[in-house]
Amino acid sequence: MSRTAITITKALTNDAATVTLSDCAGATGTDGHSLAAHEKDERLVFVVKNTGSATGLLTVYASDKMNALNQGNLVSPVGGGNITRTVGPVEGARFVNADGSIYLGTGFTGTIGAIELM
Q1: Domains of the chain (ranges, CATH numbers)
Q2: For residue 7, which of 24, 21, 18, 17 has the smallest C-alpha distance?
Q3: Could you give the residue ranges of the DSSP H alpha helices within 11-110?
Q4: What is the pTM of this model?
Q5: What does each C-alpha distance from 105 to 13, 39, 41, 73 come to in angstroms?
Q6: Which of 25, 62, 95, 104 has its CA 20 to 30 A from that of 71?
Q7: Residue 19 in contact with residue 62, Cβ under 8 Å?
């Protein structure tokens, strides 16, 4: 299978934004999610909601660039029972791949979105 694309919502200063959420159902590795590179380093935040009863994990995979491989993945627990949580801001140098994408894995059933702080 292929990764499911996530739309980045741009949040402007002193404004409101509606976050586009994508369904996720325990998709990890090459079956996970991806998004195009964001414009500003350390201004990307993920919004995740776990609708299952058990705690799941959001994994932001380390970049395929050599300088980031030693830092590893970011793995963040997302509590079960309709818990909504933010993860980030995340740094581009650690997570943006050579092709400009960021890869994510969701070890839970629920929704995921991305906000870029402008």
Answers
A1: 4-117 (2.60.120)
A2: 21
A3: 66-69, 92-95
A4: 0.88
A5: 29, 22, 21, 10
A6: 25
A7: no
